[in-house]
Amino acid sequence: MKNEGGIFGLRPIIEAIESGKTIDKLFVQKGLQGEIFSQLRKLIAQYEIPTSYVPVEKLNRLTGKNHQGVYAFLSPIEFDSIENVLPQIYERGKTPFLLILDRVSDVRNFGAIARTAECVGIDAIIIPYKGSASVNADAVKTSAGALYNIPICKENNLKKTVDYLQQSGIVLAAASEKSDTYLYDVDFTTPLAIIMGSEEDGVSDALLKVSDYIIKLPMAGQTASLNVSVACGAILYEAVRQRLNVDLF
């Protein structure tokens, strides 16, 4: 059953997961056993659902109803697929402007990036199903509500996703401080997807290998790199500058 953004009960939560709903956070009563819970536990492992095992008193505070030892908060947004979104962008006569976040895991970074992305007119943000920041109420708040106004495409395999994008005419530009190419030397007026990498190790080697360009920002100080949300903002606004000059903004 649902309760103000949350859902409780073993069967309702299992059905929510199997129907494609995204669980932001799952609370499970310590020591919970049973055949139905075993089914839920398999789904928790399969979908890497963030789970906390808590005393029953915690669950009782979340709802006064029969929670059966489980309570979940649902993601505040609905996710899409880039295979649904991209044709619509082309049909509107637009030159696609996409952003791929490869395992950006900090909620505040994700929210800040989404806010900038919406401001510059990004057509969709693409994230992996595993390893990405939770798209929760904190992310929405940090984005200043931008996450409600931009498609978020959650994909199972980013390598297959970028293959599809390239086959659809999208140029891939991945950010890496190890590059020899400054972002100012790349044409951002084509159908474009900018790839930003995780806070820990940047864009994955698999995505770097297939990118059309690997770009970097100039750095004059001793600090090796910028925060991913700051770097993303700088790159997006260089793309905007170029697109303004050819009436694409």
Automatic annotation (TrEMBL):
GO terms for molecular function: RNA binding; RNA methyltransferase activity. One of its GO terms (biological process) is RNA processing. Signal peptide: none annotated. It comes from the Bacteria. InterPro entries: Alpha/beta_knot_MTases, Ribosomal_eL30-like_sf, rRNA_MeTrfase_TrmH, SpoU_MeTrfase, SpoU_subst-bd, tRNA_m1G_MTases_N. Pfam families: SpoU_methylase, SpoU_sub_bind. Keywords: Methyltransferase, Transferase. The keyword Endoplasmic reticulum does not apply. GO terms for cellular component: cytosol. SUPFAM superfamilies: alpha/beta knot, L30e-like. Residues 6-80 form the RNA 2-O ribose methyltransferase substrate binding domain. NCBIfam families: rRNA_methyl_3. This is RNA methyltransferase, TrmH family, group 3. It comes from Weeksella virosa (strain ATCC 43766 / DSM 16922 / JCM 21250 / CCUG 30538 / CDC 9751 / IAM 14551 / NBRC 16016 / NCTC 11634 / CL345/78).
